[in-house]
Structure formats: C-alpha cells, structure tokens
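for the writeup, i need someone to sanity check this before i put it in the appendix. the sequnce is what the collaborator sent (i think, or maybe the updated version? ugh). structure was predicted straight from it, no edits. if anything looks off just tell me and ill rerun, i have time this weekend
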Amino acid sequence: MLFISPPFKNYIHLDRKTPMKESYTSNKRPRKSILFISPPFGNYIHLENTTPIRGSFTLNKRPGKWMQILKTLRYNSILGGWVNKIGLRNPGIDYAIKTYKKGEIISIAILDEKEIKPLEEKIPKDMDIELNVSCPNTDKHMINKGLKIFLNPKREWCIIKLPPVHFHDDLDRYYKEGFRQFHLSNTLPVKEGGLSGPHLKIYSKRNIKYINKYYPNCTVIAGGGIRTLKDIDDYKELGAHHFSVSSLCFNPIMFGAFYFKYKYFSK
C-alpha cells in the first residue's frame, strides 16, 4: 500500500491509495502499556495501574439492565465463553458526564444518526471516549458514520471499538477521517447475542496483524480471551500496544491472580 504523507496528503488522492490524514490522537501513544478494564466491569473496578472504560452509554436512558442480565447472561460451555444480550441498558449520557472522573474512558453507543450532534454538544471536549460501533447484543444497529466530529485535540483518547469480523471497509474510512486508536475487539455475534472470552483470540490476533500491516501509526488495544500474562505477550508480539480484559472478571480468583502478576511485572 502506498501512503501519501502530510502535507501532500491534503491535496493528492490517487486511486484507492490511503492518504495519511493528520490525527489529533496519532502522536499521543503512551510509552508504557496500559491495562484497560472494559465494560461492564469498568463501571465497577477501579484499580491501580489500570484504566476503566465505563459504559456503554447512549444519549437517552435505556432501563432494565439487571433484568436483561438475569434473562440473557449465560456461560456457553460449547463455545467456551460468556454470552449476553443485555442490549446497551444504561442510565444515559447525562449520568456518565455527571459521574465522570479524569483517568476514565466513557464508552459511547449511538443508535440513531440524529443523536450524533446532541451527544457531541453534551460531552465535554476533554472527556476521553471510546466509540462503540459494533455491539451485537442489541436489536438496534450501531451508527458508525459521521463520527469524526468527536475528534479534537483536547482528548487523549478517542477510540473506535471494532467488531471481530467484517470491519475492513469501515476501518479504511475511520483511518481516512483521522482515527488512530482502535480496540480489538467487541464481542462476536452469535445466535444468543454477543460472545466474549478465549474464542475471540483468533480474531483479535488476525486483526492486529492486519491493522499493523496496512494502517501504520495506529495505537492498538488488544482484548479478547486474556487470562494470563502469556496472552498479553502473544498480543504484544503481534504489535498490540495496550490490553483489555472484561470477561476474566467473572472469575474473581483468576482475575485477582492475573492482576497482581500484571502489576508486579509492569513496574
């Protein structure tokens, strides 16, 4: 792939060669790896040497979270992971803004393109966010276009959380719009909802290699199936910069053992 670098990328667009658009976040990659605690556990677990991702939050309240958890959250022994269809039940973006603390990342889910402008106007310009464009456990399609409005120089983090499959055309558009932070990956769509856990590793590994090969100067957050430090090492060898856990937290003993080892070796 031929990349056209700044300043000429602003004027030269030949065929489908990808111009390297200047990004507000492209040069803000911290040197030290970060461990993110992804939703839903990022709403509750705030530990030293970790960064919680809270959410996902929508423009308006979507009540019924605990009932949906009871109805749909199940461990699938055949697939070897947790499946849910909670459907983005949450108290809404106003609650997220009111309770936001610097050092957190707020996950945003947009269910209608008409919600983009109101969300952009509500969210503080210096609030770090993750755009959830690929949640499979809701009956509504996630909006994944018109999102560059959320990019601004006051944000250290403006992450796109990608699906594990069928994202390549969208990724090309995100990159051209200026996004440089990508989280791999969201849950895998299955009949019962969204699947998390070790089954995602094969997808995340393949997608890390793809991004690093075709879209340079990106920050990659690798998640899916992390259970041990060996999983982190595997992702790191493929080019991931940061790491995320979520379903590991279903087992407090396993998570505790993992966390204290991670904390010790990350000193």
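The chain has seven helices and 14 strands. The domain at 32-265 is CATH 3.20.20.70 (TIM Barrel).
thx in advance!!
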